[in-house]
Amino acid sequence: MKMPRANRLLPLLAIAVMLGGAAPSPKAVARPNVVVILADDVALMDFGVYGGEARTPNIDALAGRGALFTQYRASPLCSPSRAMLLTGMDAHLTGVATIPEVLPKEQRGKPGYAMALEPGVLTLADRLRAQGYRTVMAGKWHMGEAPGEMPQAHGFDRSFALAASGADNWADRSYMPYYKDAPWFENGVEASLPKDFYSSRFIVDKLIAYLGETDQTKPFFAYVPFQAIHIPVQAPQQFIDRYKGRYDKGWEVLRAERHGRAQALGLIPRGAPMADLPPGYRRWTSLSEQDRALYAARMEVNAAMLEAMDFHIGRLIRHLKASGAYDNTIFVISSDNGPEPSRGDDDPTLRAFHRLTGYDIGAGTMGGPGHWGFIGPEWAAAAATPGAWYKFYATEGGIRVPLIMAGPGIAPRRIATPAMVTDIAPTLLDWLKVDPGTARGKPMTGRSLLPVLGGKVASAYAADEPRAVEVSGNAALYLGDYKITRSVPPVGDGQWRLYNLARDPGETTDLSAREPAIRQQLLTAYGAYAKRMGVLEMPPGYDSRAQISQNVGARLLTNYPWLYLVLGGVLLAFLAIVWVVVRGLRRLVRRRTATQ
């Protein structure tokens, strides 16, 4: 479906308004409210205002009255990003250095690798509740499941939280064999979902209810981490219908379109080379006609799920306007990492799980209840354009994501200087005049962006000041225009590469051999960062996909003890067959011996 010309120009017009806006210092307001909205697996260009195909008018409107960041980085995986966002500290200092699904046994229980916020780590909710704020959240948590690890133990007055990395969006059920069920908890107590559940609608419903149940005389901090657009990709049909035919030309065409729009919008320089493709990338024309239709439909659901999330964000905004809270509310909107490349049809364990649980991955119930949707690595790489690769990796496609901040005193403008996920918490505390102090005796590693928002300084980081992230061996360090990055198997090879992002934002040309002194300077800076944060090296031969399979296998036996009986029965049957064969061979040998 071809978008009307006016709709295609909206993102360009919105950014043109930002570029022309003044940047006065934020006005002093009395105890503003704070809403932090976190999308899941949303790429830099997925929102409409960043040039995406999905209709996101409510997010775009917030961007139009606030600051749009173009050089913001998260981590390549969800939980570390969430820990850094809520604490302002590097993930290794919080206890959430990676996610449990990819954790090798050599790192379990080590400092920084608890897979939950460690004792003494303070969240924004902890800090703001101490300042008289009411604190609420609804959505994905994924930073521990034990009672002392859930949101109510980390500063939230009310919470309805998913402890897993994801779950079904239509029903109370697990989305992968690592989890036996969908572990939803209300205020730390395991909870069930309503029969008419759809994740984005329910999250906003619950948040609005919590705002009505808590003390109306106090300002509020609301954390809204959506499931959209994490797998399984699912959306209401009325949203899916709006994207029929939009992706029929395939992922190469989308990749070229986004690369062109990125240049038009100033997200990358004019003439910048297109990002490299990840290994194993399939050409659109190599697929059968039936598979092309199937993959195009999956991407339609992906866009629809994003629009559905935006629709329900609009409901929250209307509620805040009706209650009179909107004008005195700071909004932060971002994503935890780049797009999800996983497929649902190429892993034997996952295929067996689908058969066991009745999930459909075909075209029959596309996007609806019972359907396990995904976009796969090719669409993910196309969506991540102008960055390279996607989620899991510290390439630009995995960690360069959108960030919008809007609220009282923030002028409409675009900010092209560096920002990190650890900067959000110190920025909000600075805005609210709350002393961040220290947590566990350690200061926040992020910087306040308030002087940048107010136009007092161009950047929160000096040109010679490094910034780094690391998750399960995938790492990046930035220094000025340069970046070194390492990607581990199965897609990467574990080698460090050097890029000049000012000229090559798609990371196409490794400068390691040409500029060895700069490479060594960045490697030395990374070594200092790793030592300071307590980064553990990965065990020899580490492969994240193999580790997931290993961890899933171990959890399957825990989640489904009857599998021991099945496996035991299979083993006994095998041994019985071997016994029969051996006994038969012995008899045959005896007979031949007797006849000789």
CATH class of the largest domain: Alpha Beta
- Count of runs of 4 or more consecutive helical residues: 17
The major β-sheet equals:
10 strands, mixed
Task: Report the structural category.
Answer: alpha/beta
> In percent terms, what proportion of residues is strand?
5-15%
Low-confidence stretches: 1-29
Q: How would the global form be characterised? A: globular
CATH architecture of the largest domain: 3-Layer(aba) Sandwich
Biggest sheet strand line-up? 7-6-5-4-8-1-9-10-2-11
Bin the helical content: 25-40%
Q: Would you identify the CATH H-level superfamily of the largest domain? A: Alkaline Phosphatase, subunit A
> What is CATH's topology name of the largest domain?
Alkaline Phosphatase, subunit A
Quickly count the domains: 3
Radius of gyration: 25 Å
